[in-house]
Every structure is written in structure tokens, then in C-alpha cells.
Write a structure and sequence with these properties.
By secondary structure, this protein is mainly α. It has 6 helices and 3 strands.
Length: 151
């Protein structure tokens, strides 16, 4: 029984690895042209989804330290892709926005991923899509303990 369960889990792990590689290959190639990594993409993605996002909220969404975010965020700002503004409600809070160039790069980076998901979901029935979402929500909750919103 243990070998069967371990084999099933190993098969799932292997599929997850190959799926993740397929999902990240194109964005990784675009990022590497700039000498950047996945955290740059994540910053662009989350700021693009929620303009005006505070730096502290971004830290929580990414689950990284200030130190880990500092260099990528600075690089994106220097490149003119992310703008930081002082919040109206509290001058100590920095709110982040994507420039037009930042929006375009985010669309390019995430576009291939959206296309993969659209293709996959178009071939699935509602039960399979719901099952996939349930698995992803459970995995996300295992990492953060809190899922901000359903996909």
C-alpha cells in the first residue's frame, strides 16, 4: 500500500514539475534577456492586477522579505516599469503602479501563461476545472495558510 501511494504521489509530483516547466519556460526566457528572474514577473503580475498596491501588501502576497523584494523592485522602477507614489491616506505608505511599458511587459510575460491555461481549460469539462481549482487552492493554502481570493 505504501509503495502504491508513494508511486502515485511521485507521478503527481513529476507531472507537476513538467507542467510548471512548460508554464514558466517562455516568461523565463523573456526575463533572462533582461537579467531578471521570476520575482520580477511576480511583482509585475500582482501590481498589474491591483494598481495602487502597497509595498507591504505586495510583500505579503509574494511571501518574501523586504530584503528579497528590494533589488527586483528597484530594478523595475529604474527600468521605468513600476512607479511608486505616496499614499494619500498615509504618507509613510508607498503605492505601486505599472507604467504603460510595465503593463505591456506584464501582458507579454503572462500572456503565454494565460494562453496555456485557456487551451487547457477549453479541453476540460466543468468538473475537471473545478477539481483543478480545488487542488490549486489547497496547495496555495498549504503555503500561505490564507488564500486571498479564488481564481
Amino acid at each position: 500500500m505504501i509503495d502504491t501511494e508513494e508511486g502515485r504521489l511521485n507521478a503527481a509530483l513529476e507531472l507537476f514539475y513538467y507542467a510548471y516547466r512548460a508554464f514558466t519556460t517562455q516568461p523565463d526566457a523573456l526575463l533572462s534577456e533582461r537579467g531578471w528572474g521570476r520575482v520580477h514577473h511576480r511583482v509585475l503580475y500582482f501590481v498589474g492586477r491591483e494598481p495602487g498596491l502597497s509595498v507591504n501588501t505586495l510583500l505579503a502576497r509574494l511571501g518574501v522579505s523586504k530584503q528579497a523584494l528590494h533589488a527586483p523592485l528597484r530594478e523595475l522602477q529604474t527600468a521605468g516599469l513600476v512607479k511608486a507614489c505616496v499614499a494619500e491616506h498615509d504618507r509613510r505608505v508607498k503605492c505601486l503602479y505599472l507604467s504603460e511599458e510595465g503593463l505591456a511587459l506584464e501582458r507579454e510575460l503572462s500572456g503565454s501563461q494565460r494562453a496555456i491555461l485557456a487551451q487547457v481549460f477549453s479541453g476540460l469539462d466543468g468538473y475537471a476545472s473545478d477539481g483543478w481549482r480545488a487542488v490549486m487552492l489547497s496547495l496555495a493554502a498549504a503555503d500561505t495558510g490564507v488564500v486571498r481570493r479564488e481564481a
